[in-house]
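Reference record
================
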Amino acid sequence: MGVRIGFIGFGEVGYNMGRGFKAAGAPQVLAFANGAHNKPPYSAAFRARATEQGVELSDSLESVVRDSDVVFSVVVPVAALSIAREAARCTRRGQFYVDVNSSHPSQKEEAARLIEASGAAYIDAIIARDTRTMPHVTIAGHRVHMPIASTSAAAFKKLMEPYGMDLAIIPGPAGNATRAKLIRSLLTKGIMALQWEAALAAWKAGLDPDALKGDVFAPAEVSLPNFLAELTADPRHPISGVSHLERRSDEMMECASMLQDIGVEPVMAKAIAQRLKWARGFRLEDAFGGKKPASYKDLLAAMESHTRRSSVTSR
């Protein structure tokens, strides 16, 4: 018979996972969106984009939950708990509610209590891609690497085996997958924030960062080539390394909150969030009129120019 799939949220993750499930033979893929731009009544263009991938748009959250065996919540983190609260009014025994949002672990725990009270199974899930070996969700679709944590994790993994999902079980209850992601983020976003500062410092000192990769940016410590390449790599997002900075800064504040919860003073986590927010403040995509910069050198030069103007203005 197959597994009926539903999505609450139909942005980048929902769209690409939805088309993947449909291509893999899911008998039904439903989606409900209620964002700032895409919500009922949906535009003709939005409906056409879903239809061409075999995804049926629903006009209510309730209908998606009612008509699905597995419901994926892929909304913005600040809305995840309220969405779980609303979904819990209509979830039922035998269903799986998969929360793929980057919420605080305590919110995942609360969402689990709400969903499981209805008899449905709650799955704490995250997308934790290793950029060196694992493709992005836009390429991998529903097969993107997804660590999960829940008392029902093994049952969910078995159910989804026919669709080839790349699921890794994190031991323990709901919340632990998100904790693992935030701890990893402490490392990965920390290196990212340090590279922003170090690359601009080198540039302002009259040094080409790429020329320093062997002596200063040691490959064993950081991956400067990957960092510089990310800044201008994605043709669909002219400055992909910049466009996600605000979200990444918010994620590090969630990490800081979690560290505080477990008695660790989040000195670096807060500093990393502040540095990423600082980098976002340059609005580098505006400097190039939405076009792709020729190289990372143009990007750093634009940052230097912005810094100089800001310094003059503040005097």
Observations:
- Strands lie at 4-8, 28-32, 56-57, 70-73, 96-99, 121-125, 145-149, 166-169.
